[in-house]
Amino acid sequence: MINIKDLSKRYGKKNVVEKVSLTIQPGTITSFIGPNGAGKSTLLSMVSRLLEADTGEVLLDQNNVKKWKSDEFAKRVSILKQSNFMNVRLTVRELVSFGRYPYSKGRLTDIDEKHVDQAIDYMNLHDMEDQFIDELSGGQKQRAFIAMVIAQDTDYILLDEPLNNLDMKHSVQIMKILRKLVDELGKTVVIVLHDINFASVYSDRIVALKDGKLVKNGPTSEIINSASLREIYDMDIPVQVQNGCRICVYFNSHG
Amino acid sequence: MRKNSLKLITLFILAIISILLYAFYDIKGGFDYAFPRRVLKIAAMVVTGVAISYATVVFQTITQNRILTPSVMGMDSMYGVVQTLIYFFAGSMSVWVVNKYLNFGAAIIAMVLFALILYRFLFRSDKHPIYLLLLIGMIIGTLLGSLVTFMQVLIDPVEYLGLQSMLFASFTKVKAELLYIAIAILIVSFIYGFRIMSKLDVMSLGRENAMNLGVNYDRMVMNILILSSVLIATSTALVGPITFFGLIVANLSYQFLVTYKHSILILGASLISIIALVGGQFLVEHIFELRTTLSVIINFIGGIYFIYLLLRESRAAK
């Protein structure tokens, strides 16, 4: 269980995250939504230890994440950020194998190889496992990185805008895979999303941030309604139900 | 993988050939005189080459680029500053010059401090574009250079001659007494290196990915920065500054051995350095008959290669 308590982060005079407290429910997909600059990515970075919080704490199984040993933490929580610029030339399989580093420290065992195979299977990367990462399209690259995180086999998977630069087909594909990870393997996924419809259709819970503060936190059905969305985005967003999915229609040709 | 071991074996054979050629070519009558001297020079070149290669590859991994090297960022100039300061304030007869170990120690400490300060301001905060870093590096280098020149013109000309011989790269006047300590430093660095090779591989994925995989990134960066400045200080103290050398061998190694594994990259770069230094020195002594020096050739070729890399990088950026 991940508990976030009174977490704050300032950059200069600006409070990027301000006294956020929440609990990540195990075995769910939790989406972080909110306008640009709401502090979603910063919050995710603090939970995953990439960034140190100014005040407050993050607890993983009742222990402060700062107290966890780096390699033990890496077996429990994984994070994937938006930018993945690399100088090195790696094949897809080599990249995915890096996901086993917390376990193998660079020497892959048979069990590690099996996990790598499974991750590649899961992300449908078989055809391109020997291709170099820098030769792939944006979507393929993103899938390769997610495969690495799957190979890492952590209980918690944190993803910072994994749908960035992806077309609809690949976005849906990735969300379905995340759903499978939760439903079949019992993982817990926390994801920063910009498109509220992806959040609405695929996630169990939604956490909404605005100006660094937590404004909403609850099951998806309680958040995706016009009143709550107005509070989060300052926009009138009608919600329509289609095939059992709540779709937010935020396009309006009349201005 | 198989291809790479073949390439490494080829490099290894070429390195051995260079060493044998240099050691035995045209040795004639004065074997007892010439051979030990040649061995000493070879040892110095091997140590220098390996130290520079190792330092450059790990430096480029932690700074996430393939153009900046410790030397290009002004580490070499720092060596000049330390030596000039010593000659300026203490004089050539002082213990700081006469005692080679003290001199060496002072240079190492100053260069490590310089590297840490540089890192603190340039690489730690948000990512700066590489051209800005390069420009800052050049400005720092020029600033230190001007400072050194200013002090040098004030020094007694006789003293200056002594200083000058320390600041020019030369493989013909190796400081033998420093060789043993340099070898010791190299061995210690490699023992440390073996323990962190796989961490270095992970670190080439970038800070966030490396931290995700459980590498204590910020602490490792600090350790590696100190490691690479000690290595550069060692090679500079041994033969003097050769600015572009690290850049050439590291990049040739990346191009030749397409891999992310640091054990292979560092080994490759080291072998290439040995070929370039020992083979190059052989050419200088026996073909050019000492009409030029190796460091001039290296900086000439290295400079051209540097411009090529910059142009390629700017094209890739578009």
Domains of chain B, number = 1
Label the overall shape of chain B.
globular
Query: Major sheet of chain B, described briefly?
Result: none
Structural class of chain A: alpha/beta
Terminal residue distance of chain B: 32 Å
CATH topology of chain A: Rossmann fold
Strand content of chain A: 25-35%
CATH fold name of chain B: ABC transporter involved in vitamin B12 uptake, BtuC
Q: Could you give the count of β-strands of chain A? A: 12
| Shape verdict of chain A | globular
The percent range for helix content of chain B is over 70%
Uncertain residue segments of chain A: none
Going by CATH, the architecture of chain B would be Orthogonal Bundle
The radius of gyration of chain A is: 18 Å
Q: DSSP helix count of chain B?
A: 13
CATH class of chain B: Mainly Alpha
Q: Strands, helices and their partners?
A:
The complex is a heterodimer of chains A (255) and B (318).
Chain A: E1 2-11, E2 14-24, E3 29-33, H1 40-47, E4 55-60, E5 63-64, H2 70-76, E6 77-80, H3 92-98, H4 101-104, H5 110-122, H6 138-151, E7 156-160, H7 168-185, E8 188-192, H8 196-202, E9 205-210, E10 213-219, H9 220-223, H10 226-233, E11 239-242, E12 245-248
Parallel strand pairs in A: 3-8, 3-9, 6-7, 7-8
Antiparallel strand pairs in A: 1-2, 1-4, 4-5, 9-10, 11-12
Helix pairs in contact in A: 3-6, 5-6
Chain B: H1 2-24, H2 31-62, H3 75-89, H4 95-98, H5 100-122, H6 130-154, H7 157-167, H8 176-203, H9 207-212, H10 217-239, H11 245-256, H12 262-287, H13 294-317
Helix pairs in contact in B: 1-2, 1-12, 2-8, 2-10, 2-11, 2-12, 3-5, 3-6, 3-7, 5-10, 8-10, 11-12
